[in-house]
């Protein structure tokens, strides 16, 4: 069972990125899934979460209106569309459910 994130790169402020997190090995569909991030020298922050069916979502105030979480259960993949990126969005982004992915670095400058 594992989660593998991808899509993290360097981007200019104001730009957009889409992160993906592909799950494998799950015997049942993960219920709630989320994106977390850890900026340099800071603690872990829950950025966004989504329920099993995708009908209920959560966003941290810091990303509300700029980030969109979604999931494609047929592809076992979780997404995070990030628009209007700010330097303060720089962090390692992790996806998680009952387990954690390895993280992907997003750098905004």
Summed up:
The protein has 109 residues and is an all-beta fold. It is 0% helix and 50% strand. The protein is built from no helices and 10 strands.
Query: Ends: how far apart?
Result: 34 Å
Q: What sort of overall outline do the alpha carbons produce when their principal axes are compared?
A: globular
- Rg: 13 Å
Strand order of the largest sheet: 2-10-9-4-5-6
Largest sheet entry: 6 strands, mixed
Low-confidence stretches: none
β-strand number = 10
Q: H/E element string?
A: EEEEEEEEEE
* pLDDT averaged residue by residue: 95
| Tally of alpha and pi helices | 0
> What would you call the structural class?
mainly beta
Percentage of helical residues? under 10%
Proportion of residues in extended strands: over 45%
Keywords:
109 residues; mainly beta; 6-stranded mixed sheet; 4-stranded antiparallel sheet; 10 strands; 50% strand
Describe, in plain words, how this protein is organized in 3D:
The chain has 109 residues and is mainly beta. It is built from no helices and ten strands. The chain has strands at 2-6, 10-11, 17-24, 33-38, 44-50, 57-59, 67-72, 77-82, 91-96, 104-108. It has a six-stranded mixed β-sheet, with no helix packed on it. It has a four-stranded antiparallel β-sheet with strand order 1-3-8-7, with no helix packed on it. A hairpin with a 7-residue loop joins strand 9 (91-96) and strand 10 (104-108). It is globular, with a radius of gyration of 13 Å.
């Amino acid at each position: 069972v594992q989660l593998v994130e991808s899509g993290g790169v360097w981007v200019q402020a104001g730009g957009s990125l889409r992160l993906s997190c592909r799950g494998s090995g799950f015997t049942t569909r993960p219920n709630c899934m989320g994106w977390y991030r850890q900026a340099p020298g800071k603690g872990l922050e829950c950025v966004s979460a989504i329920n099993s069916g995708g009908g209920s979502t959560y966003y941290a105030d810091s990303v509300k209106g700029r980030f969109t979480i979604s999931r494609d259960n047929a592809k076992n993949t979780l997404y995070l569309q990030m628009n209007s990126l700010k330097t303060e969005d720089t962090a390692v982004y992790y996806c998680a459910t009952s387990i954690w992915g390895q993280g992907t670095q997003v750098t905004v400058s």
